[in-house]
Each structure stands twice: as C-alpha cells, then as structure tokens.
Amino acid sequence: MTGKIFTGNFTQQEPIPEDAINSAIEVMRSGRLHRYNVAEGEVSETALLEIEFAEYMGSAYCLSCASGGYAMHIALRAAGVSSGDPVLTNGFTLSPVPGAIDNAGGKPVLVESTEDLVIDLEDLERKILSSGSKFLLLSHMRGHLVDMDALCEIVDRHNVALIEDCAHTMGASWKGRKSGTYGVAACFSTQTYKHVNSGEGGFLTTNDKELMARAVIRSGSYMLFGRHAAAPDVSTYTDIKLDSPNYSGRMDNLRAAILRPQLKLLDENRDRWNRRYQILESAVSGINGLFVPARPDEEVYVGSSFQFLATALNAKQIQSFISACQSRGVELKWFGSADPVAYTSRHTSWRYVSEQSLPRTDKILDKLCDIRVPLSFSEDDYQLIGEIIAEEYVAIQLDETA
Ligand SMILES: *Cc1c(COP(=O)(O)O)cnc(C)c1O
C-alpha cells in the first residue's frame, strides 16, 4: 500500500508553558526545592499545588507525591490494606496498578472487562463474594468510565472501599460529578504521558481526614505535616504520626511549580483532546469489522488515547495491519501480543500475581488496538492518521497472504 505518510512523533508532548518554566526557574533561584524547605511565612509551591488541585476536584484534601503508582500504594495502605489482603482490580489495566497492590502487601483479584473497556459489574460482584475482598482499586483504564452509580451501589452494598485510579480520567466526569470523587480516595498521575506533565508525579485526594493524615505521614512528611495546607488539622496526627511508617515519596517544589499553571489548562486541553479523539472516532467507527467502544452520554471523557477492537482480524492479520500502519508513521499498540511491549501488557505476564482465568478480557485484549492522542499533533494530522488506519485496514482484508 502506498499513500501519504505521517511524520509526527507519537511520544512528543507539548512544551511546558512559559509561565510554568518561569516559576520553575524562580524555584531554582531560591534553592528551596524540598517541599518543607520554606522561608519564614512562606507556603511552598507544593502546598499551593495541593490546595489548587483539591479545589479543582472539590475534595477536602490533596497530597502530591512522587508518582501515580506511589499514590496508589499509599492510598491502599492508608485505607487499611494489610499484608495478604485480597484487593480487587481490573484485569485490563497497566502494570503499575497490580504493582501498587503488591507494594501494599495485597493480593490482586482480577475482574473481567467488557467490550466497552470498563469493569464487568457482574464479575465484580461475583468476585467480591468469592474473594471476601474489602477493597477495590478501580482503574478507569484508557479513560473509559463505567456506570459509576451502578458500581457504587454494588461496592456500598458489600461494604467494599473504593479507590479510584484516575491516571486517565483527570478532568473527566460521570453525570457531572468528577471522576475521583466517588470513592474513599482517588489517585492521579502527573507523569509525562498523562494529562499534566511534570515528568513524574502523582496526587492522592480524599475527604477522609484520618486517611489523609495516614497518607501524609507515609509520604514522608516527618513531623513537618503542619506545612501542608490541603491536609487535616495537626490535631488529627496525635497517634497517626507515631503509628504510620515513612515510605518517603514526596513531590518537590520544582515539579509543583511546573504543574500549577498546567492545572489551569486542564479543561481547555480536555476539549482539544476530544476534538482530536472524535476525528479518529469518526474515521474508524464507520468501518465494518472495527469496533469502537461506546461513550455514554453520562460520561465526559478526556480523549488522550483512542481504542478500537479489530474483531474481524486474526492475530496474524492484526500484526500485519499494525506494521502496515507503522510503515506509514502511525503508531498503534496491540494488547494481544503474548509478550509485553512498551506500555502494553496482559495479566498473564504479571507473574507475581496468582494465575487467574479471565476469558472475556482475554478475548478483548486479543483484538485491542490502542493509539496515543498527543496534543502536539493538529486536527489535520488526525484526519490523516484516521485515513491511514482506514486504508490499511481495507488493504489487510484484501491481502490473501496476511
Ligand atoms: C500511568 C498509570 C499509572 C501510574 O502512574 P505513574 O505516575 O506512571 O506511576 C496508574 N494507572 C494507570 C492506568 C496508568 O496509566
């Protein structure tokens, strides 16, 4: 197949905004990079960032930390997970999710996904009953939100604590209520490929005073927790400061300075992402044999990545299709590969997790193609990307040798 070639780089993010660069330079000039290293009367960039993100979320408290995976780890610990506890999570997610459960001493209990790439609520209820688990680390994987009312009804009825992994839903909502406000705690990532970019970083938000105090001490506050501004009153820490171990994983002022101006762009960027997403969606959704997951009316998503299932192709054809797209500059990832590649991996390659049978999820992963939607590409670029995907899909069906 010949035709136009796309030359953009799928891992190229937009530059850090100038005002963010300037405040990062100011932090460096001050020399006070550590979050607790403040001048007399000063509130650190990190503490200000926490106030602003808590406000954005409408949450009482916010803790920033070293990564999204780290936020999940201490959220689980602070919610009460202890060694050997079963913790429910999606069988289709990225590896930091089962990794965080393992880090907290928990045992991942994997739940099936539906074709719309959300957690299978029937399987969830079945596994709540069979495992006796009291915790669900719900991954809003690739930004797809499950019916949050139905999910909350199930976890509430069974007294299961919900912790949301919002790595792909920062800026998203369900029926007007923000993703990350449904559970006892929510975790976010500020890593380069998520919705704000500080290289590495993460947030934990909650309305639970004790949970936040336990998380603050765990994050490595020493006895300096009074310097947090989006955290509970110091009186909350009387016992917690002595009972909680320090798992050192703080955010620093340099990254906080880079993030604060980016928070202001979050909603505007969501709309920019979604215009790009919808161009791909209309290019692919009309094609017979390619299935694009539904986006319910209740959901406001952030289209920072795009997925479809190549249901009509076998594994060999999908591989040929992906390499044909690749040769024209379009980087699709496939979750069907037996070996983990780049950010994709399947539950079967998490060997530290006990083997679990997930036939529905496996069938989906076998067909699942995924593409990043960087903001650094224009809407015209996405027209071309959509055309290339469509053309190569048609070509692969005509190719008898594939
Ligand atoms: C990136 C990611 C995380 C973890 O974020 P890090 O900041 O990279 O640790 C968690 N869950 C999902 C689904 C992710 O994609």
Could you explain how this protein is built, in words?
The protein has a 7-stranded mixed beta sheet with strand order 1-9-8-5-4-2-3, sandwiched between helices. The chain has a 4-stranded antiparallel beta sheet with strand order 10-12-14-13. It has 13 helices and 14 strands. It has 2 domains: 18-263, Aspartate Aminotransferase, domain 2; 266-398, Aspartate Aminotransferase, domain 1. Strand 6 and strand 7 form a beta hairpin. The model has no long low-confidence stretch (mean pLDDT 97). The chain is globular. It is an alpha/beta fold. Pyridoxal-5'-phosphate (PLP) is lined by residues 67-69, 93-94, 96-97, 139, 141, 165, 167-168, 189, 191, 202.
Notable characteristics:
2 domains, 402 residues, binds pyridoxal-5'-phosphate, 7-stranded mixed β-sheet, 4-stranded antiparallel β-sheet, 14 strands, Aspartate Aminotransferase, domain 1, globular, 39% helix, alpha/beta, Aspartate Aminotransferase, domain 2
